[in-house]
C-alpha cells in the first residue's frame, strides 16, 4: 500500500517536471517563431515598398506618354482647323474681289442706262412734238374733207364699214359655196367608206317602244275568250289593271300598253294565270288581278332585299328597299333602272376605294341615286331632288343625300362622293349599247331642231323631214335674197353643229319662193 502510494506520488512528480520542461520548450519555440515572423514581415514590407515605388514610376511614365500623345493630337487638330480657316479666309477674299468687280460693272451699267434713259426721254419728247404736229395736220385735213364731202367723220366711217361688211359677206358666201361644192365632189367616196366601216363594226338593236309588253298565246282561239262577250272581259281586265289591252291581227300575241311597268307586269301575269286556268270572266279577273298585285308587291320587296344582299348594303329602310325592288320594273332610255343602279353602285365603290374614300357609303349612294324615278306618286320636283328628299326622310347619311341630289347638278356638291356618283352615272348611261332614244326624246329632238331654225330672221316655216335627217326651211322672199339664202343655210348648219347632238348628218334646205298675187274685180 505504501509502495503504491509512493509510486503514484513519484509519477505525479514526474508528470509535473515533464510539464514544466514542455512549457519551457514551447515558450522558447514561440519566441523563435515570433522573431521569424517579424523578420518575414519586414522583408515583405520592404518588397512592397519597392514594388509600390516601381509601380508609381510606371504610372507616372504612362501618364506622361499619354499627355504627350494627347498634346500631339490636339496640336495636329488645331493645325488642321487653322489651315481650313486660312483657306476659307482666302476664298472669302477672292469672292470679295469678284463681288467688287461685279459691283463696279453694275454701277457702270447703271450709268449707261441713265444715259440711255435721258436719250430716250429726249426722243419721246421729240416724237410727242411730231405726233402733236401730225394730229393737228390730220385734224385740219379731216375738217377740209368733211367740208368737201358734206359728211362728218363718224358718218363716213359708218358708210365705209357697211360697204366693207357687204363686200365681205358677199365674198365669204361665194367662197363658202365653192368650198362646199368641192367638198361634195370628194365626199361621196369617203362617206361610203365611213358608212361601210360603221356597219361592220356596229351592231344595233331594233327600236322598240318601252311602253308596251307582248303576251304570247298558243293559238288565236284564246283571243275570243280574253275579249269576252261584247268585250266585257277585256274591259274588266283594263279597269282592274289600268293598262290598255290591244287584241289585233298579230298572230299568237296580245299587246299590253301602259306607261307604268308594274301595271303592265300585273296585267301580263294575270293574263298568264287566266289563260292557264281557263275560267275567264269579270269576277275571276278581279280575283286573279288582286292576287297578282299582292304577289308583285312581295316580289318587289324580295328583289330589293336580294339586291341589297348582293351589294353588301345593310341597314336600308324597308320603304327604300321596296323602291329598289320597283327599279326592276322601270327603265330609263331603254336601260333597266335596277341594272343601271347596280352598275353605278359598283363603279362608285371601285372609284371610292381607289381614292381612299368610304367605298360602302359610295356604293349606297350609287344604288339610291335614281330612287326618285320610282316614287309612286306624281311629283313636280326633278327626280334627283325628290330622291334626296326621300333619303333625308328615311335618315340616310348627309353625304349620301347630297350625292343623290347633286348627280344632275340641281344642288351644289358638298362631298367627294357626289362627283363620284355623277361620273359613275355618266359612265353607265353613256357606254355603247346601254341606252337608246325613246319616242318622247325623239319627238323633242325634232321639235328643238325646228325651233332652232325658226329663231333666224326671215324664216316663216320649218319642217323636220325623213326622221330628222332633212330640215326644210321656208323663208320670206321679201326679206331674204338668193344670196342670203345660201348664207342662211350655212348659218343654220353651223348653229345645229354647235348646239345640238344628233346621229349622222342633217341636210338643211332653204326654200325661197316668190309669189305675185292680184285680184280681178
Automatic annotation (TrEMBL):
It is found in: Cell membrane. It is a single-pass membrane protein. Its EC number is 3.1.-.-. InterPro entries: HD/PDEase_dom (IPR003607), HD_domain (IPR006674), HDIG_dom (IPR006675), KH_dom (IPR004087), KH_dom_type_1 (IPR004088), KH_dom_type_1_sf (IPR036612), Ribonuclease_Y (IPR017705), RNase_Y_N (IPR022711). Residues 38-123 form a coiled coil. HAMAP family: RNase_Y (MF_00335). Belongs to the RNase Y family. Endoribonuclease that initiates mRNA decay. This is Ribonuclease Y. The gene is rny.
Amino acid at each position: 500500500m505504501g509502495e503504491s502510494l509512493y509510486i503514484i506520488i513519484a509519477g505525479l512528480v514526474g508528470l509535473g517536471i515533464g510539464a514544466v520542461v514542455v512549457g519551457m520548450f514551447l515558450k522558447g519555440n514561440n519566441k523563435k517563431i515570433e522573431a521569424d515572423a517579424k523578420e518575414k514581415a519586414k522583408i515583405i514590407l520592404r518588397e512592397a515598398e519597392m514594388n509600390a515605388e516601381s509601380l508609381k514610376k510606371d504610372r507616372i511614365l504612362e501618364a506622361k506618354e499619354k499627355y504627350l500623345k494627347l498634346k500631339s493630337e490636339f496640336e495636329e487638330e488645331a493645325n488642321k482647323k487653322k489651315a481650313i480657316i486660312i483657306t476659307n479666309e482666302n476664298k472669302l477674299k477672292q469672292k470679295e474681289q469678284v463681288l467688287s468687280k461685279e459691283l463696279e460693272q453694275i454701277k457702270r451699267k447703271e450709268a449707261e442706262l441713265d444715259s440711255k434713259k435721258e436719250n430716250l426721254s429726249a426722243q419721246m419728247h421729240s416724237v410727242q412734238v411730231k405726233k402733236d404736229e401730225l394730229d393737228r395736220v390730220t385734224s385740219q385735213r379731216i375738217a377740209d374733207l368733211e367740208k368737201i364731202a358734206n359728211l362728218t367723220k363718224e358718218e363716213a366711217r359708218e358708210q365705209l364699214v357697211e360697204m366693207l361688211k357687204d363686200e365681205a359677206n358677199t365674198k365669204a358666201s361665194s367662197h363658202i359655196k365653192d368650198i362646199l361644192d368641192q367638198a361634195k365632189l370628194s365626199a361621196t367616196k369617203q362617206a361610203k367608206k365611213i358608212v361601210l366601216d360603221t356597219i361592220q363594226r356596229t351592231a344595233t338593236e331594233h327600236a322598240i317602244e318601252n311602253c308596251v309588253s307582248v303576251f304570247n298565246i298558243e293559238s288565236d282561239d284564246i283571243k275570243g275568250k280574253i275579249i269576252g262577250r261584247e268585250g266585257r272581259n277585256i274591259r274588266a281586265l283594263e279597269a282592274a289593271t289600268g293598262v290598255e289591252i290591244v287584241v289585233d291581227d298579230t298572230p299568237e300575241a296580245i299587246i299590253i300598253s301602259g306607261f307604268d311597268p308594274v301595271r303592265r307586269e300585273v296585267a301580263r301575269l294575270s293574263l298568264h294565270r287566266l289563260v292557264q286556268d281557263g275560267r275567264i270572266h269579270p269576277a275571276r279577273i278581279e280575283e286573279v288581278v288582286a292576287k297578282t298585285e299582292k304577289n308583285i308587291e312581295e316580289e318587289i320587296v324580295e328583289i330589293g332585299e336580294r339586291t341589297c344582299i348582293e351589294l353588301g348594303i345593310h341597314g336600308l329602310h324597308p320603304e327604300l328597299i321596296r323602291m329598289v325592288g320597283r327599279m326592276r320594273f322601270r327603265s330609263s332610255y331603254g336601260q333597266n333602272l335596277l341594272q343601271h343602279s347596280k352598275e353605278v353602285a359598283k363603279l362608285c365603290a371601285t372609284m371610292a376605294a381607289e381614292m381612299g374614300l368610304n367605298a360602302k357609303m359610295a356604293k349606297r349612294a350609287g344604288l339610291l341615286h335614281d330612287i326618285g324615278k320610282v316614287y309612286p306618286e306624281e311629283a313636280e320636283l326633278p327626280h334627283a331632288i325628290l330622291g334626296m328628299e326621300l333619303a333625308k326622310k328615311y335618315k340616310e347619311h348627309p353625304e349620301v343625300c347630297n350625292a343623290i341630289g347633286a348627280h344632275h347638278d340641281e344642288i351644289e356638291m358638298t362631298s367627294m362622293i357626289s362627283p363620284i356618283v355623277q361620273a359613275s352615272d355618266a359612265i353607265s348611261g353613256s357606254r355603247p349599247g346601254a341606252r337608246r332614244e325613246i319616242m318622247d326624246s325623239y319627238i323633242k329632238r325634232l321639235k328643238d331642231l325646228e325651233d332652232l331654225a325658226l329663231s333666224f330672221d326671215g324664216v316663216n316655216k320649218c319642217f323636220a323631214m325623213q326622221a330628222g335627217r332633212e330640215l326644210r326651211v321656208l323663208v320670206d322672199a321679201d326679206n331674204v335674197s338668193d344670196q342670203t339664202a345660201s348664207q342662211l343655210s350655212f348659218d343654220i348648219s353651223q348653229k345645229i353643229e354647235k348646239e345640238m347632238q344628233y346621229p349622222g348628218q342633217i341636210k338643211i334646205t332653204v326654200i325661197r319662193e316668190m309669189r305675185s298675187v292680184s285680184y280681178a274685180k
